[in-house]
Write a structure and sequence with these properties.
With 104 residues, the protein is of the alpha+beta class. It has helices at 4-13, 17-26, 33-40, 44-56, 79-87, 92-101, and strands at 31-32, 60-65, 68-73.
Length: 104
């Protein structure tokens, strides 16, 4: 069982609309940073800062596949976070649009 401090830190990360949108996208599948930038219509530095916070907080994992970084959810051991992510609106339409463009 996580401590109150750990739960509070996780929930604090969820208090940002961009980070919630990233987690909602990653609920569908792993994505490279360029896909996330495209789906959110944000700048790469902005998205990278949010990804860094989520990674540091342990909510996502990253894997380098030259030259891109791929991101996926890491919430199996955080049921309080998984429950919130499961309640987010589907981002399937954005994911399908990415598949047709294939930026990576």
């Amino acid at each position: 069982m996580p401590s109150i401090e750990a739960v509070a830190a996780s929930l604090k990360l969820l208090a940002d609309p961009t980070r919630l949108a990233i987690l909602a996208l990653l609920r569908h599948r792993e994505l490279c940073v360029c896909d996330i930038v495209e789906a959110l219509d944000k700048t790469q530095p902005n998205v990278s800062q949010h990804l860094k916070k989520l990674r540091t907080g342990g909510l996502i994992r990253e894997e380098r596949r030259s030259p891109w970084m791929y991101y996926s959810l890491n919430v199996e051991d955080k049921p309080h976070v998984k429950h919130v992510i499961d309640q987010l609106p589907s981002q399937e339409d954005r994911i399908l649009a990415l598949r047709s463009q294939g930026c990576c």
